[in-house]
């Protein structure tokens, strides 16, 4: 399999992929058209923030299974397009946290002490001291907007400078803020109180131009603002005006609305210092992020699940290990049901009984949907696009979680409604995580969800098993196992045969013609 790195990524990460036997090409600074041309050859794409992974590129990516963002922000990737196409997008949420936090502190100190300006002046032969008198950080109020990984790392570090830290983040609790020693307050209040405001939140439709003209006016005339998160969170035109008019004291910017950026009115202002998106650019961070995404890509390309997928529920290692056998089971249940269904699919309900499902069921639901939809549809369905595909087709998906209420300690039941009625399948894990289908429709069974099966509902009467066995035996198809389920003697029954080879069309037809056989469905798991 082939992997393309279209931005500079640390060799240590790429070598992990090469050692795993993948071919890795490094081609940087490609245009959109160039990428569209070559992307069909690749199974995985690695980017940093420079490559814009547009819907057009994703559309052309016939073989792409995963996009690895060697860093945090995924705003350069069209996530909706990737999800629709079933392409997993992973990032490295922690690999560059410290690099970005330290760069923020570096910018903060440089801004307060005029270091870039003094440096430039002295190198130009000017020994200026009075002009570059700065400010101390001690005793100042630092306002942090966005208290995630980098925001909290910045908080910890500025506290060492004996500052007061205030914060705004609508998604963190008062308790967490208290634990971090940060006073939470509304955005407007933070802007009015902070001596230094620093951004550590993602760019999205809610946060674009969050710091606009009106909000800049709330800040103290003596205040500084830092953006080491994403360009576009501060309105650059409004910032220019506020700085020029002396409404705030200065700004440090690592990121810009349009990148790369080499010319801007902001660059002409003495009280603005800038770096070209260097927040994550340390040797250590680049190795961390490259290794993180390389491991994810290798795992996904070898059939595993991603742990840091942005468009798939994230799981820590422990949850992943615990849930993996259930994820496989859920997929098999969906897959089995898909192969015995008839009629258009209208709705799917997944019921979880048992404590195993107390914390997390989303990956299981996605797996059940993938298993169910993939055999039914022409397009490739995977964990990522399964909900999109279901929604597009108007299939209603419902999830019910109950701590108990079933005959098994932990049970997954998939009920689907088609134009022709309802069908049910249920499964559990036996000892040593051995998966078992324990119910199909109203029948109790004990079927290992693996290999070739024949699902044969029939009338409970003598000779049924014998005649089915004979037809298969004459074709040299060995029956490895058989399960029978019936409701009442002489009533409706079902046999599920496990075969060493798939049954051929003629045998299936011959079995279907046996009087008392209601239907025959070949299932391959
Ligand atoms: N300059 C760089 O090179 C560089 C390096 C790494 C990360 N980043 C950027 O830094 C930012 C933060 O990264 P992180 O790893 O800390 O992410 P994170 O996901 O850990 O934290 C983001 C925080 O922002 C908060 N948030 C979301 N919307 C908000 C809003 N409207 N107002 C206030 N808070 C809001 C979230 O609740 C979360 O706590 C991201 O934009 C990331 O892309 C930049
Ligand atoms: O979101 C990130 O991780 C940073 O902005 C880093 O971007 P980069 O990988 O292009 O340096």
Describe this structure in words.
- This is D-3-phosphoglycerate dehydrogenase.
- Keywords: Amino-acid biosynthesis, NAD, Oxidoreductase, Serine biosynthesis.
- Pathway: Amino-acid biosynthesis; L-serine biosynthesis; L-serine from 3-phospho-D-glycerate: step 1/3.
- The protein is an alpha/beta fold and 525 residues long.
- Among the domains are: 113 residues, NAD(P)-binding Rossmann-like Domain (Rossmann fold, 3-Layer(aba) Sandwich), CATH 3.40.50.720; 140 residues, NAD(P)-binding Rossmann-like Domain (Rossmann fold, 3-Layer(aba) Sandwich), CATH 3.40.50.720; 73 residues, Alpha-Beta Plaits.
- It is built from 17 helices and 22 strands.
- Strands 8-7-6-9-10-11-12 form a seven-stranded parallel β-sheet, with helices on both faces. It has a six-stranded mixed β-sheet with strand order 14-13-15-16-17-18, covered by helices on one side. Strands 2-1-3-4-5 form a five-stranded parallel β-sheet.
- Helix 1 runs parallel beside helix 12 and helix 14 crosses helix 15.
- The longest helix has 24 residues.
- The two termini are 25 Å apart.
- The model has no long low-confidence stretch (mean pLDDT 95).
- The structure holds nicotinamide-adenine-dinucleotide and 3-phosphoglyceric acid (3PG).
């Amino acid at each position: 399999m082939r992997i393309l790195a279209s931005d500079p990524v640390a060799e240590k990460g790429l070598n992990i992929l090469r050692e795993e036997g993948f071919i890795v090409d490094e081609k940087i600074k490609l245009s959109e058209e160039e990428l569209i041309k070559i992307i069909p050859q690749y199974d995985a794409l690695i980017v940093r923030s420079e490559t814009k992974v547009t819907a057009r590129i994703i559309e052309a990516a016939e073989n792409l299974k995963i996009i690895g963002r060697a860093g945090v922000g995924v705003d350069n990737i069209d996530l909706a397009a990737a999800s629709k196409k079933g392409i997993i997008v992973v990032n490295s949420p922690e690999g560059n946290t410290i690099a970005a936090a330290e760069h923020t502190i570096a910018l903060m100190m440089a801004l307060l002490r005029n270091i870039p300006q003094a440096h430039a002046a002295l190198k130009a032969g000017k020994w200026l001291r009075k002009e570059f008198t700065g400010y101390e950080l001690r005793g100042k109020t630092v306002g942090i907007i966005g208290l995630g990984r980098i925001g909290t790392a910045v908080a910890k570090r500025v506290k060492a400078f004996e500052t007061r830290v205030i914060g705004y983040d609508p998604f963190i609790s008062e308790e967490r803020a208290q634990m971090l020693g940060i006073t939470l307050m509304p955005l407007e209040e933070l802007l009015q109180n902070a001596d230094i405001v620093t951004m550590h939140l993602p760019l999205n439709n809610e946060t674009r131009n969050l710091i606009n003209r009106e909000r800049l006016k709330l800040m103290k005339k003596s205040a500084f603002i830092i953006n080491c998160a994403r360009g576009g969170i501060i309105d650059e035109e409004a910032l220019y005006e506020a700085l020029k008019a002396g409404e705030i004291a200065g700004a440090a910017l690592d990121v810009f609305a349009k990148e790369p950026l080499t010319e801007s009115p902001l660059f002409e202002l003495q009280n603005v210092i800038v770096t070209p998106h260097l927040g994550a650019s340390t040797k250590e961070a680049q190795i961390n992020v490259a290794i993180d995404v390389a491991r994810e890509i290798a795992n996904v390309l070898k059939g595993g699940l991603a742990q840091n997928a942005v468009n798939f529920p994230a799981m820590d290692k422990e949850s992943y290990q615990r849930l993996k056998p259930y994820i496989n089971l859920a997929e098999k249940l969906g897959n089995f049901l898909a192969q015995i269904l008839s009629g258009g699919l209208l709705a799917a309900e997944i019921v979880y009984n048992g404590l195993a499902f107390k914390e997390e069921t989303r990956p299981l639901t996605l797996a059940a949907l993938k298993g169910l939809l993939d055999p039914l549809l022409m397009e490739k369905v995977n964990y990522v696009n399964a909900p999109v595909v279901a929604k597009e087709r108007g299939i209603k998906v419902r999830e019910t979680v109950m701590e108990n209420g079933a005959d098994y300690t932990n049970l997954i039941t998939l009920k689907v409604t088609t134009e022709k009625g309802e069908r049910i399948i249920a499964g559990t894990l036996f000892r040593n995580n051995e998966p078992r289908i324990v119910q199909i429709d109203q029948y109790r069974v004990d079927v290992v969800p693996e290999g070739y099966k024949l699902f044969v509902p029939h009338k409970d009467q003598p000779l049924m098993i014998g005649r089915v066995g004979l037809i298969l035996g004459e074709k040299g198809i060995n029956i490895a196992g058989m399960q029978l389920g019936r409701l009442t003697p002489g009533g409706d029954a079902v046999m599920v045969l496990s075969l060493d080879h798939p049954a051929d069309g003629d045998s299936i037809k011959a079995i279907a013609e046996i009087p008392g056989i209601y239907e025959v469905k070949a299932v391959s798991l």
